[in-house]
Amino acid sequence: MATVALTKDNFEETVTGNDIVLVDWWADWCGPCKQFGPTYEKSSETHTDVVYGKIDTEDQPELSAEAGIQSIPTLMAFRDGILLYSQPGALPAAALEEVISKVKELDMDEVRKQVEAEEAKAAAEAE
């Protein structure tokens, strides 16, 4: 599966409408981004059950600001619409494979319970 260009118009729908979504935040002028690109593309051909999105930070500054992107490349991993991983830096192929494996192995019922507990705690502290 090839990578998908994500924009403010299709980002949320893509992240919430698919099981696992990886997002590569990049820019054309970024050397490490260009180094990571082929690794990311090759991985997308291996994991056809994962949606691989790319967001050009120059083309999508509002989306980049909303996501708090401060360094590129940044890789994010979502599962069931929940952000599970967000890390700047170009990953070697083996590290990217490890991230994907760990995301696939997660018990999402347990993750949802943890998210709900954290949200409840934050709400209680805000009162």
TrEMBL record:
This protein's GO CC annotations: cytosol
Domain Thioredoxin: 1-105
Keyword Transmembrane helix: no
Alphabetized UniProt keyword annotations: Disulfide bond, Electron transport, Redox-active center, Transport
Domain of life: Bacteria
Chaperone is among the record's keywords: no
InterPro entries associated with the record: Thioredoxin (IPR005746), Thioredoxin-like_sf (IPR036249), Thioredoxin_domain (IPR013766)
GO terms, molecular function: protein-disulfide reductase activity
Family: Belongs to the thioredoxin family.
The protein's name in its UniProt record: Thioredoxin
Organism annotation: Glycomyces buryatensis
Name of the coding gene: trxA
